[in-house]
Amino acid sequence: MRKHLLPICFPVLFALIISFVFAFQVSAYDKTDLKKAKATRDCSDCDLSGAFLSRADLSRANLRKADMSDADLSGANLIGAYLSYAYLSYANLSGANLSGANLRGANLSYANLRDADLSRADLNGANLRKAKLSDSDLSDANLRDADLSGAKLSGADMYNADMSGANLSDADLSGAHLNNADLRDADLSRAYLLNANLSSADLSHADLSEVLGLNIEQLSTVQTLYKAKLDPELIEQVREKYPHLLEEPI
């Protein structure tokens, strides 16, 4: 009986060992890099994956292209930090202050950014796919061409944010503040917009097909819907009540 079990047990045991080693390597950070980041705040291309940096003061730090995937940066001070093209996938940035930070091209997919301050941050071309951004501050942020597909943005403040060309498909924008936002050419298909504030938002050329929770009252407050893509029922209501919104802005 034992002889028959051996050929089965060894492959299973080997697979478990390999999985454990791989998981450890993926989340392991470089201790020298961590010490350097804390001491000098100059750590571009550093390996800080899985590092504990909760409430760390990294303001104005140079972390360009650094790997901070799975890192705990909750409550960290990253004001004005240089994080362009950094890898922050699955990182915990809840409550962190990233105001004025350079996150151009950064990978923040699946990151936890709840209650984070991203006001005036540069997120041009950033990957925020499926990121958790509920109640975050994105006011005056540059999100041009950013990927926010499937992101949780309920209650987020995006006042005056530049989201032109951004991908917001399947995003949860319920109760979000999008007033005065630039959403030209943005993809909002299948987004959830219940109680979202769209006052003075520019939605020209935006894709609003199959959106959920959006009503004519919300659309009546926008700046323009020029050449926007809307579902038949909504477009008819706009034509009937607010035809000027479909005209080319002067």
Keyword list:
mainly alpha, elongated, 250 residues, 20% helix
How many whole angstroms does the radius of gyration measure? Answer: 22 Å
How many helices? The count is 4
Count of beta strands: 0
Give the overall shape: elongated
Helical content band: 10-25%
Order of helices and strands: HHHH
Round the mean pLDDT to the nearest integer and report it: 92
Low-confidence stretches: 16-26
Task: Tell me what portion of residues adopts beta-strand conformation.
Answer: under 5%
The major pleated sheet works out as: none
Secondary structural class: mainly alpha
* Alpha carbon gap, first and last residue: 85 Å
Summarize the structure.
By secondary structure, the chain is mainly α. The chain has four helices and no strands.
Describe this structure in words.
The chain has 250 residues and is an all-alpha fold. Helix content is 20%, strand content 0%.
What secondary-structure arrangement, pairings included, does this model have?
Blueprint: H1 2-27, H2 31-40, H3 216-219, H4 232-241
